[in-house]
Amino acid sequence: MSHSIRVVPIAILLVVGVLVVSVTKLVLQPEPFLSAVRSSVLSDTGNPPTAHLLYTTPPDPFEQSPEDRQPTQLQFQNQLQLMTSDRVLSAALLDRTIGSLDLFNDAEDPVQVLRDHLKIRRVDESSLLIEISAHGLPQPQGARVVNTVVDEFIKLDIELTLARSRAILERLEASRSELGTLLQSHFDELTRYEQFSLSADGPSVSRSAIEAELLDCLAQLRRVRLDRAALPPDADPDALAPIDRQEAELLAERDRLAKLNLRANLDAPRRVMLQGSIDQLLELRSQVEASLWREQLLDKNPRPPWTVISPAE
Fold first, then answer.
1. What DSSP state is assigned to residue 55?
2. How would DSSP label each residue in 7-31?
3. Whole-angstrom Cα distance, residue 130 to residue 66?
4. Which of 69, 111, 206, 259 is most buried, with most CB under 10 Å away?
5. Residue 1's pLDDT is what?
6. Is the pLDDT of residue 149 over 90?
7. Which fold has domain 38-174+302-310?
8. Backbone angles phi, psi at 102, to 5 degrees
């Protein structure tokens, strides 16, 4: 019995000691306790400060096909993740009013604390309208937090959009330069194929020149034969001799040019392939230049996809 009586005072002393320690910590370091209490109380009182934002993809003046909603939805989800990123929230905490709040000033991880007090909700699953609100903060401070986060988010979004645009421009410029170098190489090779050497040490002539000479020779031969056919059957042999001699010379020239033309066209498949490759490269360069022109115009007039319908108050 005496043993039980002694246990009760000891238990009472332990309880009193715990209470004394808790009260002492509350007096010396009140913020961790009071913050939790404030969050619980304020989150249940009235409507939290809320801002409404609408996501709208800027119209592309060069796009003729209807807008594809699937990429838009994906971009929208990525934007929501960016809104509560460390970069946005860290920038918001640099605001003196927000950074001086005990809730964030005394926290080991103020960014995570700020993230925990923010709530982002999609108003309607079929729309791109969202609301961002601050819970557990007094009304004026909560509104300041929400509006600052929104401002920093839109600022960062524009910065990232410009950075992406610059990267696209650099890639397009590099592609255009590479295509120009490749085209010049093909043109040079085609020019080399166009020149044909009659002998190892002889001068070079162009294939087109040989073809032109052959065509001219055939035209002259046709006229001579027409002149020969126009003479009467019993024409004087002395009158026929110059025509026959000219025809023989043209026939010899025709055979010589025909052989040269045959030799000149032995590499025709390679030249045809080169010309086809050049045509494809020219078309590709035209597409790259059109994309480059488009990006340059859009880069001069960047438009953020977010519109603040109503700020937090």
1. E
2. HHHHHHHHHHHHHHHHHHHHHHS-H
3. 24
4. 111
5. 46
6. yes
7. Bacterial polysaccharide co-polymerase-like (3.30.1890)
8. -60, -30
pTM of the shown model: 0.57
Residue ranges covered by each domain of the chain? 38-174+302-310, 181-299
> Is residue 312 a contact partner of residue 53, using CB atoms and an 8 Å limit?
no
Helix (H) or strand (E) holding 280: helix 268-300
Q: How far is CA 202 from CA 63, 103, 192, in A?
A: 57, 92, 15
Report whether 310 contacts 51 (CB < 8 A). yes
Contact partners, residue 220, CB within 8 Å, separation at least 6? 250
Exposure string over 140-176, b if 16+ CB within 10 A, otherwise e: ebbbbbbbbbbbbbbebbeeebeeebeebbeebeebb
Residue position matching structure tokens 């807008």: 67
| Residues 259, 238: Cα–Cα separation, whole Å | 33
**At 309, phi and psi to the nearest 5?**
-70, -45
How large is the average pLDDT for residues 152-158? Answer: 90
Phi/psi at 195 (nearest 5 deg)?
A: -85, 135
Residue showing tokens 């002149």: 227
Query: 46's torsion region: left (phi>0), alpha (psi -120 to 50) or beta?
Result: left
Residue 22 has pLDDT above 70, yes or no: no
The CB density around residue 207, as the number of other CB atoms within 10 Å, is 19
The average pLDDT across 106-127 equals 87
